[in-house]
Amino acid sequence: MRAVWITKAGGPEVLAVRETPDPQPGHGEVRIAVRACGLNFAEVMARQGLYPDAPKPPSVVGYEVAGVVDAVDAEVTGLEVGQRVLALVRFGGHADTVCVPAERVLPMPDDLDFIEGAAIPVNYLTAYHMLFRVANLRPEARVLVHMAAGGVGTAVLQLCRTVPGVVTFGTASAAKHAVLREEGCTHPIDYRTEDYVARVRELTGGEGLDLVLDSLGGRDWKRGISLLRPVGQLIAYGFANLSTGERRSYRRLLGQLTGVPLLTPYGMMDRNHTVSGVNLGHLWERTDLLREELTALLDLWREGAIKPRIDQVFPFEEAAAAHRRIGERRNVGKVVLVP
Ligand SMILES: NC(=O)c1ccc[n+]([C@@H]2O[C@H](COP(=O)([O-])OP(=O)(O)OC[C@H]3O[C@@H](n4cnc5c(N)ncnc54)[C@H](OP(=O)(O)O)[C@@H]3O)[C@@H](O)[C@H]2O)c1
Fold first, then answer.
1. How confident is the model at residue 19 (pLDDT cuts 50, 70, 90)?
2. Quick check: CB of 51 below 6 Å from ligand 1?
3. Which of 107, 172, 296, 301 is deepest in the core (most CB within 10 A)?
């Protein structure tokens, strides 16, 4: 099989396509001939050596694939060779062949293509899980999402549209604001030229927000909490602030880590605030939740309520360019790799 390897921590040039023997499905697994796989911010951080969950290089990362089942272990029921599927993979997804436990594999709707299929699992599960399981999104809620023009960001905006009257604030570079509006963002904010905290205060008449979805981390968690009104909630789900440029910087790491707010249950009680954490990569023991949420998402796709915005599709040989596209903040929506 062919796969995109991270040969060592570093810039995009450390990526290489290598050939190894095909894996065989183990107990309860199916093997998938991959047609497309999603590239996520986490995998860009893994390449930089900034993602502690990732296997040590040399390694193959990748959390999600879409393709066709080409071998099935005898214990598996309900999935068969030739079926079009999408799957969550615990690393190893940036390959043309993967073996996955059957419970993490779902049949794809007939008219969903592989590129869009590969763009659904991680981004939409993260968005759905935050909005509807952890946050209980209500009509008229005010929601701020960072990295709003990225994969998770656009998924959040689309899902917010399914609840009446939700007002969304999204931070992104100015050039991406037209797309944010298309995706339903009420108030795009250019965080590069204006202070988003001041802008949100102004737009809400000083009242603040019901929900902050923060994937930036460090000092931004503190700033997000400062924007919550009573009964407001911040969900921490990423630490993109650790990643700037193509390589790891210890100075930056330290600066961001010391900016993380120190919270006490007493303080949160007094302010009626909730701070929650979401990490899909640590939910493997709750595949039941992930399956239920992914099934709901495929229903929303069938209804036309969600549609992944594909930024660009890169062949494996151009994986370095795909990583650069995200690292240099040029993507609008999802970057997808194809074998
Ligand atoms: N906890 C979980 O389970 C989970 C799951 C998936 C993703 N995440 C997190 O969610 C966030 C978004 O992930 P994604 O895959 O949707 O991202 P993405 O599509 O790769 O979004 C990248 C965009 O984010 C913006 N950005 C802001 N800060 C950045 C930085 N330091 N470096 C590069 N780009 C930056 C840039 O747009 P602008 O030009 O607009 O700045 C860039 O184009 C990440 O922090 C990721 O780790 C968490």
1. very high
2. no
3. 172
Q: Indicate whether 73 and 15 sit together in one domain.
A: yes
Q: Do 295 and 111 meet the contact criterion of CB atoms below 8 Å apart?
A: no
Side chain identity, residue 90: R
Q: What integer pLDDT is reported at residue 335 of this predicted model?
A: 98
Reported pTM: 0.96
Query: 168 CA to middle of ligand 1, Å?
Result: 17
- The residue to mutate among 126, 248, 329, having the most atoms of ligand 1 within 8 angstroms of its beta carbon, is 329
**Which of helix, strand or coil describes residue 151?**
helix
Task: Please compute the mean of the pLDDT values over residues 7-15 and round it to a whole number.
Answer: 97
Distance of alpha carbon 176 from alpha carbon 173, whole angstroms = 6
Distance CA 148, CA 92 (A): 27
pLDDT band at 168 (very low <50, low <70, confident <90, very high): very high
Provide the pLDDT confidence category of residue 248 given band limits of 50, 70 and 90: low
- Within 10 A of 156 (CB to CB), how many other CB atoms are there? 33
CA 85 → CA 111, 141, 288, 289, distances in Å? 12, 35, 17, 18
Residue ranges making up the domain that contains 183: 123-280
Tell me how far apart the alpha carbons of residues 278 and 187 are, in angstroms, rounded to a whole number. 24
pLDDT at 254: 82
As a whole number of Å, the CA-based R_g of the chain is 20
315 forms beta bridges with 338
Domain-embedded: residue 296: no
3-class DSSP state of 264: coil
Per the domain annotation, does 302 fall within a domain?
no
- What is the residue whose two structure tokens read 């089942």? 69
For residue 137, give every residue at least 6 positions away whose Cβ sits within 8 Å of its Cβ, in sequence order, or none.
Answer: 131, 143, 160, 163, 166, 211
If you ran DSSP here, which 8-state letter would residue 109 be given?
P
Same domain (yes/no): 151, 108: no
Q: Are residues 261 and 316 in the same domain?
A: no
- The mean pLDDT of the chain is 96
Residue ID of nearest Cα to ligand 1 atom 28: 240
Does residue 249 carry a pLDDT above 90? Answer: no
